[in-house]
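Sample entry (418 residues):
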Amino acid sequence: MDKVQKFLARHEQLTRRFFLRVGAAGAALLSHHLRGALAADDSPELAAAIAKLETLFTAPEAFQDVSRGDPIPHELSEDRKAAAGLTQQSWSLDILADPEHAPAVRRPMSKEAGNAFDFAALQQLAETHAVKFAKVMTCLNIGCPLGMGVWEGVPLRELIWLAKPGDDVRRVYYYGYHNNAAEQMFRSSLPFARVLEDPFDLPPVIVCYKLNGQWLNSARGGPVRMVVPEAYGFKSVKWLTHVVLTNLPHANDTYADDGNDVDSPLKSFAATLNAPVSAKASEPIALTGYAQVGIGGVSKVQYFLQRDDEELASGDPHLTQAPWRDAEILAPPEHWGGGLPDNKIPAGTLGFDDVGRPRTWPMRLGKIHWAALHPGLPAGEYTLRCRTVDDKGIGQPLPRPQRRSGHAAIEQMPLVVK
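Predicted structure, serialized as tokens:
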């Protein structure tokens, strides 16, 4: 058995996830790319780079954390968490009318009135209304995802209907535990119509209690948080305690005070994971990366390497005319990671079939991997750029290049070829 065959045999499971296409044509493409790459002198470097890619799903304890507060709620002692309503046994949710702009709410729920919605009631609703979906959690102002997994909960509308709202609710305000300090309150909001209906085949807004099949831990916003599928993380408020129905038409989000676009959905963008800072002249260069699949989808991931002594075309600030090359979008993995029970996609997860395969790929609101083997280059100093192209053929950072509506800047990585 030659070197290529031995490599393929050792990495049979990994290679099945390398490339997007499936069936006989996909198998042929897979064989072509792997054998063609591995036949080159440096081709094992690409395979090794792909083998080192992290799993697409993130273990709950491995998510990056951008929690706010003083003290941060998940750092409280267990006794203080219980006293603050931050355990399953002590958690409750008030669902109230805005006292200053009050719509009709015929059955408000509150701790003060003794009828707040509790965790047992949430689990009772979950018996018939539980929803699961995959989502990448990303901060609007940070250029990388915090983590990705399967979120499970009950649609927010099911709880709101129990409060019997009238016809004059226009927006839903909500916030979480903030140590009774007004300056620490982190709040967000949604149009009432988005809570009641799921446009464009989006999953519902959920009151979430599980991540990757496990009870939501305190660091991830447990026992209960909001999760808004298409939105940046600031909409998915942690340690949820209050839902307020209002007749006001405008947002009240904390991020609105910072000048951000608080109703901006996730953008698509690409970044590198294996991008060498130096390479040998005339030898192929292995590249890997990830892409966030925003609301516009991803049809391609592209990259280009340019000598630093060559000027970019003038009048093209978004590099729409640059000599982009297509990278390969890697296929859905057999092993998603993230600590899923039995390493399987939970049954009934939206967007997956009965055996846990994505119904479409790339999946919106998630993360994917890409790979490329660039031909050898002459010695010199270069800049590597990569981007996504959405389902309408629009390249990143378009159609929404504005920074305040979320990260989408084209990444630039230096490379010295010697």
